[in-house]
């Protein structure tokens, strides 16, 4: 294995670790609340003679079971919406990558239960009315209150689910995927009249009405406040504009931003914001970008690689362009740090949040290591900045260059193919278990690093990573 450059200058400072600001119990509270909401729905179903009807005959069994699946599906849909409402307590407890996974998982369960609800109710009504399935379906859709809106809601939710499948996500641009997912809100809104007008559990129980109206109000309030109101307020308060655009490499661009009192924004190194640049058509499509430098009193910097979507517009931004912001988001920050030493492992544009963390975090000379993987020397973003930072703060820097290893899933380049992944990591970061390890890069590469680190004895709570795929 070849270390292209190692820098270990002397620099002294007293390290004082930052206290954790996100209580650990918040995560448990969110999980209990989600499971608790499902339990409440089941109890409401039981109070509406749901269990007794299971033994009343085939038609009532199907209808009662259909009621239950529909109620749980509606509740999970609200949970799904609430998880992605950008509520700070939830976002900081889980991180956007885990929230996105849970959001997707809950969404698939909700959708499958919705399909079960449709089938069970329709077949149950068919048996009860001694009708044909097609005739009963037509009767339900055209004569029951709110059913046409419910059909539209189902179509909207089906579109969201289909575009959430991994193959579909790969075929869509981020902006297109994000726009299509707004139909989830349409689906929720259109399903409400059906529940009010024809939902037996809603219309016959005052307690159920209180619960469902409260649940809808909380979900809607979270969306309006955290996804609309708070971003608008922050945008107006800080007045962020573009002040310069710098090309870091052939396909990587940095944008320097200025604003009023950005220290009050609460953004930390390692986090990202969603930006909308008011530079012409397409301004309404937001894109998430990580900070690539320590946030200052009135300055922020973001860096992105041209991925063929909104990021390709960054190079054409002009000084003075006004910016709308959402955030900050993400938990790849110093709050999760446990020890005094830090090791940063970056691949490609994944250096962006880690470069900001290296500048921002407190540590003593010799207590920080950076391992930066890139295809070639010209692909090393921030090389001069990293080496200046290394000299100032005593960071050991390793550059690993070359193509990926062809015959195994490894985080090492082809030139280091003779090395075992965990042994190579221990050689670059001796006494690995004494470090907090921050990892950022493509998902397969991050998986390989995580496996190597854990095999080398790193405690799981000292491994910090956040995935930015959607």
Largest sheet, spatial ordering of strands? 9-8-7-10-11
Distance between the termini: 34 Å
Number of strands: 11
Q: What is the helix tally?
A: 16
CATH fold label of the largest domain: Four Helix Bundle (Hemerythrin (Met), subunit A)
Helix content: 40-55%
The radius of gyration over CA amounts to 26 Å
Mean pLDDT comes to 84
Structural class, from helix and strand content? alpha/beta
Low-pLDDT parts are 1-20
Strand proportion, as a percent range, falls in 5-15%
So what's the CATH class of the largest domain?
Mainly Alpha
Q: What is the correct CATH architecture of the largest domain? A: Up-down Bundle
Domains (count): 3
SSE topology string: HHHHHHHHHHHHEEEEEEEHEHEHEHE
Secondary-structure topology with pairs:
Elements: H1 25-47, H2 50-53, H3 58-83, H4 88-94, H5 96-129, H6 133-143, H7 147-162, H8 166-171, H9 174-181, H10 183-198, H11 200-203, H12 206-238, E1 241-249, E2 252-258, E3 272-277, E4 287-290, E5 299-305, E6 323-329, E7 341-347, H13 351-360, E8 368-374, H14 383-393, E9 395-401, H15 421-428, E10 435-440, H16 443-455, E11 463-465
Parallel strand pairs: 7-8, 7-10, 8-9, 10-11
Antiparallel strand pairs: 1-2, 2-5, 3-4, 3-6
Helix pairs in contact: 1-3, 3-5, 3-12, 4-5, 5-6, 5-7, 7-10, 15-16
């Amino acid at each position: 294995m070849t270390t292209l450059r190692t820098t270990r200058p002397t620099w002294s400072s007293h390290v004082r670790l930052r206290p954790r600001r996100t209580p650990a119990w918040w995560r448990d509270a969110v999980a209990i609340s989600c499971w608790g909401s499902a339990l409440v729905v089941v109890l409401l179903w039981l109070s509406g003679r749901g269990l007794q009807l299971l033994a009343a005959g085939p038609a009532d069994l199907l209808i009662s079971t259909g009621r239950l699946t529909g109620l749980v599906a509606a509740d999970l849909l609200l949970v799904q919406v609430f998880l992605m409402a950008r509520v700070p307590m939830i976002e900081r407890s889980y991180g956007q990558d885990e929230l996105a996974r849970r959001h997707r998982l809950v969404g698939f369960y909700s959708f499958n239960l919705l399909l079960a609800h449709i089938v069970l109710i329709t077949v149950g009504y068919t048996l009860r009315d001694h009708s044909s399935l097609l005739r009963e379906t037509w009767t339900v859709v055209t004569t029951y209150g709110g059913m046409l809106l419910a059909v539209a809601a189902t179509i909207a939710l089906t579109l969201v689910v289909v575009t959430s499948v991994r193959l579909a996500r790969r075929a869509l641009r981020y902006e297109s995927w994000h726009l299509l997912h707004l139909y989830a809100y349409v689906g929720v809104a259109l399903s409400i009249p059906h529940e009010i007008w024809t939902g037996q559990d809603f219309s016959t129980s005052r307690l159920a009405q209180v619960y469902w109206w409260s649940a809808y109000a909380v979900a809607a309030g979270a969306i309006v406040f955290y996804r609309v109101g708070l971003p608008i307020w922050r945008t107006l308060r800080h007045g962020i504009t573009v002040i310069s655009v710098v090309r870091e490499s052939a396909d990587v661009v940095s944008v320097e931003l200025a604003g009023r009192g950005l220290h009050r924004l609460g953004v930390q190194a390692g986090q990202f914001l969603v930006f909308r640049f008011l530079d012409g058509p397409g301004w309404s499509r937001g894109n998430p970008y990580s900070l690539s430098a320590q946030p200052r009193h009135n300055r922020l910097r973001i860096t992105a690689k041209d991925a063929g979507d909104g990021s390709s517009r960054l190079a054409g931004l002009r000084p003075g362009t006004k910016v709308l912001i959402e955030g900050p988001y993400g938990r790849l920050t110093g709050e999760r740090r446990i020890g005094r030493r830090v090791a940063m492992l970056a691949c490609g544009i994944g250096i962006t949040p880690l470069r900001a963390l290296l500048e921002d975090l407190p540590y003593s000379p010799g207590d920080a290591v950076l391992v930066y993987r890139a295809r070639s020397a010209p692909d090393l973003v921030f090389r001069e900045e990293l080496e200046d930072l290394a000299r100032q703060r005593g960071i050991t820097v390793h550059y690993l260059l070359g193509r990926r290893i062809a015959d195994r899933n490894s985080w090492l380049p082809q030139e280091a193919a003779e090395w075992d992944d965990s042994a190579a990591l221990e050689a670059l970061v001796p006494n690995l278990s004494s470090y907090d390890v921050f990892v950022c890069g493509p998902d397969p590469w991050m998986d390989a690093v995580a496996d190597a680190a854990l095999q080398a004895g790193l405690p799981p709570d000292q491994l910090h990573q956040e995935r930015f795929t959607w």
